[in-house]
Amino acid sequence: MADTAQNEQKPKASESKSENITRRTAAADKSEPVADNKSVIEQWIYIGPTIKQLGLETNSVFTQSIPKHIAKKMDEQPELRFMFIAVNDLAQKNSELAAVGSELHTVYEALEAKKGAI
Asked: How far apart are the C-alpha atoms of 61 and 91, rounded to whole Å?
């Protein structure tokens, strides 16, 4: 399994937070998948703003996979990927989300601002 620290990419001096997030998301998509272990049930929780058009509500839990219509929208809006986290990381990510100026908070606010157009 790839070392997640190696997947971390530093922002370029000339890019905005949003551009950096999009670039890092694209890089993460190319990372190695987790080992295929059928006995492990993956659970993800959506911590972003409610987006009625997608049927996404804050704190919705997904097991095994994310619905295709949402996955398709994630291709168009890469910021959505940051809002799906492992359930085990919820406490830590909620702290990050509450920290004004953090990357996660910035992404949340960006999605909140444009959720009507998603």
From this structure: 15
Q: What is the pLDDT of residue 21?
A: 52
Q: Inform me whether the pLDDT recorded for 5 exceeds 80.
A: no
| Beta-bridge partners for 56 | 51
* Sequence ranges of the domains in the chain: 17-30+40-117
Q: Is the pLDDT of residue 98 over 90?
A: yes
Nearest to 63 by CA among 86, 29, 82, 83: 86
From CA 1, how far away is CA 34, in angstroms rounded? 7
- Tell me, what DSSP letter sits at residue 45? E
HSE (side-chain half, CA atoms, 13 Å) at 87: 10
Q: Note every long-range contact of 71-74, with CB atoms under 8 Å and residues 24 or more positions apart, other chains counting.
A: 73/118
The pLDDT confidence band at residue 2, using thresholds 50, 70 and 90, is very low
